[in-house]
Amino acid sequence: MKRFVLLLLSACQADLPDIPPERFACTVRLRRSQLQCPQSHWCKDERCSPRLGCTEPLATEPACPDGVSRCEPELNGEVAAMSCEPGLYTLTSTTPIDPERCTCPEPFLCVAFAEGPTRDREAYPLFVLPPGDAPVSLPSGSFGISGERTELRVCSRACSSELDCPAEHTCRAAAVIQSGLVDNPVSTRHTIGVCYPNRLMTVTASSAAQPDQSFCADIGDCGPFLGRPVGVCQAQTILIPDHPTVPAGPAWGTRTAVIQRCVQQTGGLIPPGRGCTRTDLCETGICFEFNCAILCNPEEIEPCTGNRACFPATVERQAPGGQAPQPDLIHICRNR
User: Fold this and answer.
1) Residue 232 to residue 216: CA distance in whole angstroms
2) Torsion-angle region of residue 269: left (phi > 0), alpha (psi -120 to 50) or beta?
3) Under a CB-based contact definition with an 8 Å cutoff, are residues 294 and 266 in contact?
4) How far apart (Å, rounded) are the C-alpha atoms in residues 39 and 313?
5) Domain chopping of the chain, boundaries
6) Which of 149, 229, 284, 313 has the highest CB neighbour count under 10 A?
7) Could you read off the pLDDT of 80-126 as tens digits, one per residue?
């Protein structure tokens, strides 16, 4: 008898096989307290699908096929998610048509930049504001928000990876301020990804509209008069953290991006156009195909000098911490 009981206990403790969430069917016609998919997934077409993964079936990387579909948000009272939908973007990002009402052209989202107790600008405390006809503001006192830098409101794309974002933009976590979602005590799925500009274009020389104070477009941006390290402007692979106060959790995963930053280093570096083996050996830009290349924004009037033009290039970025390399779409100055 004792042996029989032990056999029963051992049977109860057997390890169950891990089954991917995509293998489970689901339905959206349930009460809010009955969410069938894990927080990293949502119910799309009666299947649990990756919530922040704009990925077509059988795709090897999270992104919508370039020139075929775009990464679109799905926002309702239970979930903030994204998926690939037909259509193309014609803009990268822009200022709101009506900044007070945060009015954006379809299908862009209005993203607000919050002030809060954190000084960690790596976190970029971004929030997606709901569209409407009335003036809208961030809920001060909630989600660690103490105020807003209204001059940093931007109409942005949704994204699931750097491949969904244009040049000079990074896929960052943004929490959705939507009454049905915020007031839902069960759902914790508030956060999506948005393509936020690395360096906001302004009509003044003020650096007040630069959330990332260490960002640089070229070596001329690095100097004490701008409050940045004196040195060179190099491309770096950085980790993009989850939202600091309303995290996406396991749905965010490990995100990285290639961003140029001022580095305190002088002498012995390779100028643009010369041979290289590593990016940290270049005076500015990135080491691409064994040459130091300058990063550029194709939307600028003259992003490159001489007989060079701004062309797209796909690179493999090595994430910090030994993570597997990830693809990234950048733009560099190359000969015509």
Assistant:
1) 9
2) beta
3) no
4) 34
5) 30-202+210-335
6) 284
7) 888 888 877 767 788 888 888 888 887 789 999 988 765 565 678 89
Q: Rounded CA gap, 62 and 228, in Å?
A: 34
Dist CA 272 CA 287 (whole Å): 9
Pairing label, strands 284-288, 232-240 = parallel
What whole-number distance in Å separates Cα of residue 193 and Cα of residue 246?
12
- Residue 107, preceding bond cis, omega within 30 degrees? yes
- Residue 196, sorted as left (phi over 0), alpha (psi -120 to 50) or beta, turns out to be beta
pLDDT at residue 205 in the model: 45
Are the CB atoms for 82 and 54 separated by under 8 Å? yes
State whether residue 83 is helix, strand or coil: strand
**6, containing H or E segment:** helix 2-12
d(CA 174, CA 125): 7
The neighbour count for residue 239, using CB atoms within 10 Å, is 13
Distance CA 72, CA 79 (A): 14
